[in-house]
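Recap quiz, item 2
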Amino acid sequence: MNFMEIAQTGITIIIGAMALAVVGIVVGLLYKGIDRKIAAHMQGRIGPPLRQPFLDVRKLFVKENVIPENAITWVFNLAPITGLVATITILLYLPIGGFPALLDGIIVAKGDLILILYLLMIPSLAMVVGGFASGSPYATIGAQREMATMIAYEFPLAIIIISLSWRLSLVQGTTHVFSLSTITATPLWGIVGPLGFIGLVILLLTLVIVTPAELSKIPFDSPEAETEIAGGLLVEYSGRNLAMFYLTDGVKTLVMGTLIVALFFPYNLSPLLGLESYTAIIIDILFFLAKLFCVILFSVTLIRVSIARLKIDQIVYTYWVPLTLLGLVGLICLMWDQTIMTQFGMQSIANMLGLI
Amino acid sequence: MLDMFLQTFDTGNGFWNPIVWIVAFVVIFLIVVIIRGFGNKNYKKGTGQTKAFLSGNQEYEKTQMHVKASNLYWGWTESMKWVIDGLKKMHTGNVSDYVLWFVVVMGILLLCVGLI
C-alpha cells in the first residue's frame, strides 16, 4: 500500500465520517418525529409536529447541564459522547440508501456483521457506565436492568446472524459470509425453498422483536421506566449530556432499521425499472427510506403502542425462552430446507404419497 | 511493515480493521464534541440542583441505597430461577452423582452421534 492509497483511505474516512454523522443525526431525528406522530395518532392524539425531536435537542442545548455531586464527573460526561460516537461509527459499515457501505470500497477498512454486533453493544454499555457514574439509586437500578436486558437480547440476535450466515455459506461461490456486502448481494429469499422461506420469516419476526430492546423502547424499556424509576439510568442527565443520549437514540433507530433492511430487504428499484444515473440514485434512496419507514413502523411504533411495559425478569424470559426457541426453529427450518427438502423435495414427497 | 500494520484482520469468515475504526472513532468523537460544545455547560454548583433525585425520599447511606454486586444480574437470575434451582439440586457434592451424570450425558451423546 503506497502513500497515495493511505491518504485516499484517510480522506474517505474523514469526509465519510463527517457526512454520516450529519445524515445519521438528521435522518434519525426525523424518523423519531415520524414514530411519535404515528404513535400519537394510534392513541387518538394529535401528537407533536415532525420537527419536535429537533426542537427537543435545541431546548436541551439551552438547558443547564447539571452534574450531580455524587457523580464521577469525567465518566458521567464521557458516557453520552462515547455512546453517540460508537453508534455513528456503525453507519460506516452499513449499506445506506442503496449504496454499498462507505468502508466497503476500501479493502483495508472492511468490517463484518460480528463487528457490528459488538459495536451495537457500546451505546448500551455507555448508558450503563453513565448510569452507575451518576451516583443515584434510580440510575444504578436502571443500569443494572440495562445489563440484564443486554444479556437477554444478544442471544436471539446472535442466533439470527449465525443462521443467515450459515445458510449463505452453503451457496456456491460465496466467500466472507458475515460480510454485509455478500449478504446484500445474495438475498436468501430467492435461494431457499418453502421451508427455508418460513425459517426466514421466523428469523425476521425475531429480529423485529429484538429491535425495541436494542432501542430501549416499550415494552422493553424497564431500564428507563419513567413511571417507576423516574427515567432510570438517565434520571440525573440533563442539558447537553441528555441531548447526546437523545441523539444516540435517533441514530441507533436508523442503525437498527438499516441493519434489518440490509439483512432481509436489500433490493433496489432502479435495476427493476431499468433506471440509470441520477434518477436511479434518487429512486433507490427514496425506496430505501420507504423500507426504513416500514421496518421502524413494525419494529418500534406498532410494538410500543400495543404492548405495556414488561418487568425485567419478564424481558429476560421473553428473550431467553420463547424468542430463542423461535430463532432456533427458524434455524432448523433453514437446515431442513437444505437437507430434507433437497433429499425429499416436493417431487419425492408426492411420489411417496402415490400422487404421481 | 506499514502494509502489515494496516492489514485487515481476516479469519476467513470474519474480518475487521481496528486501525480504521479507531481513526473513524476519533474523527466522529471530535465532531460530537464540537456539537456538544454548542450546548449550555453551566449549572448551579453546591445547590439542591446537584442532589440525587429521590422523589422527595430521605437519602440513606450509599451502601444501603445502591445495587449490591450480588444483585447485579437480578433480572436474569430471577427469570432463570427454575434453571438455576434445578442446577443447584444437581450439585449434590456426591461424586457418585457426578459420575452418574457423566455416564448419562456420554450415553446420550453417543446415541446422537450414532443416529447422525
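Chain B has a mean pLDDT of 80.
The radius of gyration of chain B is 28 Å.
End of item.
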